[in-house]
Write a structure and sequence with these properties.
The protein has 16 helices and 18 strands. Helix 1 crosses helix 16. The chain is α/β, with parallel strands linked by helices. It folds into two domains: 214 residues, Glycogen Phosphorylase B (Rossmann fold); 218 residues, Glycogen Phosphorylase B (Rossmann fold). Strands 3-2-1-4-5-6-7 form a seven-stranded parallel beta sheet, with helices on both faces. The chain has a six-stranded parallel beta sheet with strand order 10-9-8-14-15-16, sandwiched between helices. Helix content is 43%, strand content 16%.
Length: 453
Amino acid sequence: MSNIGICHFRVGLTDGVSLEIDKWKKAFEGMGHKVFLIAGEAPGIDATIVHELCLGCPFIRIIYKNAFYSLKDFSSEEEFFQAILQLSAFIEEKINGFIKKNQIDILIIENIWALPLNIPACIALYKAIKLNKIKTIAHHHDFFWERHYYSHPTCNIVKHILSSYFPPDNRLIHHIVINSIARNELKRRRKIKSLVIPNIFEFKASKWKIDDFNYDFKEKIGLLPDDIVILQATRIVPRKGIGLAIDLVKELSKPDNLLFLKERGLYDGRNLSKNSRVVLVFPNLIEDLTYFRTLKEKINREGIKALFISEIVNRVREEKEQFKIYSLWDTYLFADLVTYPSFYEGWGNQFLEAINAKLPIVIYEYKVFTEDIKDKGFKVISFGSKIKGKDPQGLYYIDHHSLKNAVEKSMKLLTDSSARRRLTNHNFKLGLKYYSMAALKKYLESMVLIHIR
């Protein structure tokens, strides 16, 4: 059995990479390995903390801005490069200590060599691996070339770093990607071979249920018992396409559609009253304030009801000063429908979460979905796969026909219990077959450990 180290900017939060780390850690431990975490931040998690791995570290933010926005805090490229190397040396020392203290046999690097969010850390990790001659798995969730804002670095030093370290090519490093598109692009751009391991979910281990802790969730966030809850469980960043979720809720909230829902009654026997609303709920992190403000403006302009509740939702439940922090999973229990209108995803954690919760999901057919997931046979409510244009505020929208189809299918699955049950049970069985913890264990045994022994 091996001692395995997992390194990321952060662990223990609700972002997709942190959630995948949880699953990999559990899978490795189930196979008899010991797992040690190292990160820049790890709220409530047992981990070695190196503050300079954190994306919020002030000097890391300065380096990032000078690399991709404006090289203004340094007198020259050389001074900038020396500053990077100096911080990198400090981080490397900390990583070497982590490796030696925990007698790490295998190091897993989560996305640090994929996105240039922390350039000193990427160099430090590479040097530490060479120095310690340690077998390494580079687990890439998305690459910098997939994001337009990395296409114009401020100087040649950054261009060189991108071409050398994102990701690095070394016999000690074995590369894992989460979709076939990334595998093909990595081979084409860097001549680096990789294996595909998709994101997975603990379908069999799920204990999601309404209980003595979460029973009051709707009341606590100001919802009526007969409100219809549309859950947008992703982080709030532009690529999540949240404007489409707002458009859907606007259509569902129209008098004729609300009347239809009231006359039919909901799938679970609830009868809507004159005060019932369709409410869009956001439980996850707000990571782009400009985009958040634009969404708020659209919400106010369209006159829909939306709740941003990330301050009372976290990865796990807890109680703070006599008020509750609900888990992200608690929010799914009170949802009637999940929206997932992302324009781009490396894979799609919230897709599996919705399937596990046995909820219908309204999805924009992003490329990885169409290439790697759709052919498995999942049944979804589709926004289609084509963007019609942008509104004056810069938010994307789809054509009226695609939106109308999504609204009609949503209303059917909100009111037809038999159709809803058939669809959600079908999706759950497919999720269990292709994307469960049992599937991950097979991937790790046959596709990873064999390659690094």
